[in-house]
Specification:
Largest sheet: 7 strands, antiparallel
CATH topology of the largest domain: Jelly Rolls
Radius of gyration: 54 Å
Oligomer: single chain
CATH class of the largest domain: Mainly Beta
Shape: elongated
CATH architecture of the largest domain: Sandwich
Helix content: 25-40%
Strand order of the largest sheet: 9-10-21-12-17-18-19
Strand content: 15-25%
Mean pLDDT: 86
CATH superfamily of the largest domain: SPRY domain
Order of helices and strands: EEHHHEEHHEEEHEHHHEEEEEEEEEEEEE
Structural class: alpha+beta
Number of helices: 9
Low-confidence stretches: 1-7, 86-92
């Protein structure tokens, strides 16, 4: 009969208590083997076999099993040789800072592969093998390596936290569930886990969506920065072009002024030179006659004197220099004419600049409607809430906090608390009106004074021709032509409210350095009717982007 071949496996030489190779192995009556020290310490707290749970009412007499001891020693030596030969590879698995180390390893701690919730110990790949091969240990619950396994134990009963109290939203052990939490809704961790896991998935999906939204927002912001840089470059290029043209115009006008002054000075010099030349010629003739007369007066030749007397006793013909003057050039009006021409040139350039600016501003046009809840009782609003005029009849309306009680004013339904917006209002045919924006907390009852301090940024027309910016003390504005359409542009963050002649694409007035902290409403006042003289409505116009 041939000898049967067999292979001894590693777990056959491991103590199931210390999970290490047997040291002084002993066999208890039920047939299971343990380290002598391990089982002796076990008897101090329990009279059951750790493996089969057989009860022993008397501590059995234990002797070292020499056969197992020899086999274990051989296995230990073989294991040490394998460990020595693979030390270089094991170094690769030594636990790094932040990783969970094996609790069983002595010396250098290897990286744990699993943690046991029954043993409350973390094991490396080598020390984990018994949990993967021994039937008793296979029943233990293994999880991915975690630190502080003691935190999974109930501090009161020193038992595993394996239940969840829904009332107190806390983890409890079995003893807690029948004592402090006996009347509470206590469920196994797995049940709570299965209930919460879908919520985690939902939350994860929401977070992923938020991440995607924020990623898109970052892309949007970056693209806006690129567009802003392009706008900035374009603005600088246009500004350079405009100012170069202005500098050329100023230089050309200066050159023209200089040339004109120099030309007049040259003409004066030429005229003076002519006068001097004529005077010098006359002086030369007079000097010659003076010499001739002096010689003649000294002569003793009576006949010669008498013969020469008629021709020499007369003054040579000369010009009457009394009325001849060399006046400095007359420059009055010269500079004015040059500056006037420069002004015309500048006006042409400014018109181009404001035309380009108005095109950009109109990109922020908003569609406004009037809010009837804010309208003074004398105001009549059109059905589309786009027109308003003042009548002589006061309607019986509720005096709500929003409504203007004494001044014929109305606000838009739309309000703005950030960004930029632009709107246009037709004022054709009106002699008096107020336009602009107002903050939400303005006084709507009693006497109202329109100025930024009171929350109004407006301009107004009075008596058909007097235009004012209501900037504290009112500022009188020049009115080159009758206004028909007024544009209002607001940059909330920059604190700017701008007014434009929308037809002439010309600026009217700028409120700058404003500090906006509330919602802003477009503000309209068609002013009183004036017995029909000012009955035309204010009309919110459709902004034409092609102009």
């Amino acid at each position: 009969m041939s000898a049967a071949s067999f292979v001894l496996t590693e777990h056959q030489f491991l103590c199931s208590i210390c999970l290490d190779v047997f040291t002084d192995p002993v066999t208890i009556p039920c047939g299971h083997n343990y380290c002598k020290t391990c089982i002796t310490e076990h008897w101090n707290s329990s009279n059951r076999c750790p493996n089969c749970q057989e009860v022993f009412y008397g501590r059995p007499d234990m002797k070292v099993n020499t056969f197992i001891c020899e086999m274990a020693e051989q296995f230990r030596q073989s294991s040490e040789q394998r460990t020595s030969s693979s030390s270089s590879s094991l170094k690769l698995h030594i636990a790094k800072p932040g990783e969970v180390p094996c609790d069983v390893c002595t010396g250098a701690k290897l990286k744990a592969r699993k943690s046991c919730l029954v043993c409350l110990v973390s094991y490396c790949e080598t020390h984990l093998k018994s949990h993967l091969t021994m039937s008793v240990l296979k029943r233990h619950q293994l999880i991915d390596p975690v630190k502080n396994l003691e935190d999974r134990m109930c501090t009161k009963h020193d038992k595993l936290l394996e239940l969840f109290c829904k009332n107190d939203q806390t983890f409890v052990c079995l003893l807690c569930s029948v004592s402090d939490h006996r009347t509470h809704n206590v469920v196994p961790l797995k049940e709570e886990y299965e209930e919460k896991k879908p919520e985690l998935g939902k939350t994860e999906a929401e977070i992923q969506q938020m991440i995607e939204e924020r990623t898109l927002k970052i892309q949007d912001i970056k693209s806006r920065v690129v567009l802003s840089q392009e706008d900035s470059d374009r603005e600088i290029a246009e500004g350079v072009q405009v100012f170069l043209a202005l500098m050329e115009s100023v230089e050309s006008s200066l050159n023209k002024l200089t040339d004109t002054v120099k030309r007049k000075q040259k003409e004066t010099e030429i005229a003076a030179e002519g006068f001097i030349k004529d005077l010098e010629q006359e002086i030369s003739k007079l000097k010659k006659r003076s010499v001739e007369l002096e010689q003649l007066s000294r002569s003793e030749d009576q006949l010669h004197v008498l013969q020469s007397f008629p021709s020499l006793n007369t003054i040579p013909p000369t010009k009457d220099w009394i009325g001849v003057n060399v006046l400095p050039p007359f420059y009055d009006g010269t500079i004015g004419r040059v500056v006037g021409q420069l002004e015309e040139t500048l006006s042409r350039h400014m018109k181009k600049v404001f035309e380009a600016e108005m095109k950009r501003i109109k990109d922020y046009a908003v569609d406004l409607t009037l809010n009837p809840d804010t309208a003074h009782p004398n105001l009549i609003l059109s059905d589309d809430w786009k027109q308003v005029y003042c009548s002589n009849v006061k309607k019986n309306l509720s005096d709500s906090p929003e409504r203007f009680a004494t001044c014929p004013c109305v606000l838009s339904k739309e309000r703005f608390s950030s960004g930029r917006f632009y709107f246009e209002v037709q004022v054709r045919g009106k002699t008096d009106w107020d336009l602009g924006v107002a903050r939400e907390s303005i006084n709507r009852k009693g006497t109202i004074t329109l100025n930024p301090h009171n929350g109004y940024w407006t301009i107004c027309l009075k008596n058909e021709s007097k235009l004012y910016a209501l900037a504290g003390p009112p500022v009188r504005l020049s009115l080159k032509s009758q206004l028909e359409n007024v544009g209002v542009f607001v940059d909330y963050e920059e604190g700017v409210v701008s007014f434009y002649d929308a037809d002439a694409t010309a600026p009217i007035y700028f409120f700058t350095g404003c500090s906006f902290t509330e919602k802003l409403y477009p503000y309209f006042s068609p002013d009183v009717n004036l017995s029909g003289k000012n009955s035309a409505p204010l009309i919110i116009s459709h902004v034409n982007h092609t102009q």
